[in-house]
Amino acid sequence: MLFNSYSFIFLFLPFTFYFYYLLGRLGKNRIAIGWLVGASLFFYGWWNPIYLYLIITSIIINFFVGSVIIKNENSANKRGKSFLILGVSFNLALLGYFKYRNFFIENLNPLLHDPFSTVQIALPLAISFFTFQQIAFLVDAYRGEIKDNNFLNYCLFVTFFPQLIAGPIVRFREMMPQYTSGLASRVNQENIAAGLMIFSIGLFKKVFIADGIALYSTPVFDVASEGIALTFYESWSGALSYTFQLYFDFSGYSDMAIGMILLFGFRLPINFNSPYKAENIIEFWRRWHMTLAQFLRDYLYIPLGGNQKGQGRQSINVLITMLLGGLWHGAGWTFVLWGGLHGLCLAVNHSWHNFQHAYWPDKNQSSLLWSGLSRVITFLIVVFLWVLFRAENLEVAISIWKSMIGMNDQYVDIATNIKLGKGRLIILLLVVWFMPNTQQIFSKFKVVLTDHKLKPDWLLPWLQWEPNKYWAIIIAILSIVSVLSLTRPSEFLYFQF
Known about the structure:
The protein has helices at 6-25, 29-47, 52-71, 78-112, 127-142, 151-159, 161-164, 172-179, 189-225, 232-263, 281-285, 290-301, 311-329, 333-359, 368-390, 394-404, 422-434, 438-441, 460-463, 469-484. The protein contains 20 helices and no strands.
């Protein structure tokens, strides 16, 4: 069941919402939480009922292991550490079997004279997200950051449908106080109004902008996969179109998740904060898929030593972290290389900052010219690397890259089959660079769990949301346009990860 489908918008979501608050008003808060768990499992099973056993088994085992760790939270307690290793190993084994088994076999067989055979395994929906989320739970429990655990709340923590499929990756200590606060008994009209508005903005981003720009990006990569060299303009059109498609697709999902969970009185951590406004790669990763970046930082980069053991070791730690981050996105060498190149850019960026701090501390980099140049350079790096992220294989990515830098002098003119969409690309570039994002529009209200200092945009005072008739008209227009665009619902791009 897709967020951007009639069945979800007009049946599942209102039905779940109504009975959640009905149970709460009757004083049945625990039953209301149970209702959300049941609805979330139904939502998950809608895709492929057979994998319900997988997520339920994962929940039961992780809950049991976590409970043992909580009772033995002292780091000197060998039992707690043993169960932590057991729990993390179980989660990684589960992820490895379903997501990476064939990838490892295909790469080992040539070296071992084909002793293994691949099997057709349908990738279970959201396995990367609920696996990482539960690993974080086990580690936090071992660190003594979780003092209490309740099975029903834990089930909701793992399965809650707004954030189950594509994040954000939430922490147990962030959500537990909300689950135990009895929110089902209190209908907050402001939360409902803001939630509907944010959901509508996200839906519009997905079905009108992201799916619309896909008509310009998909043909380019399809043609390149057929071995046809592209022109300079076609390759840039495809790369930029995918850059904006992925942006508005993921931004749309993030908004819809925040809006939906706000309807039920809960709040999620911010996961997307205008990443194309970043002025360097470090800042980009503080803005793009923020909870994944925080997970990799807290549970991989810092345990590896972070930046505490010298610049050389820091660069290695960054590279290892991003290589694994790339592999998390998909079982393919293009994802590994994409992560590795981002890691290399991050290492260079950190080294540059260290150099500036040591030898150039008084250099003024706050000028408008420097800021603009930094943003353009960062954006171009991101665009080039998205080609690798989207391409079917490395050969396709290299072919498109060559066209983008004018190295393909032999090509078939297929401009009649590929739409360049220059006007759209310029408009979208201006939007992602200069327009305020959803969190800035709703800055007068607390719509996300974490507070982030967001740079004010020049249009922000004119676009701050208020529960009034003006915004009611806007939500009506966005909703009508979005619903009329739901003729062929498409999956969110991050569903495949």
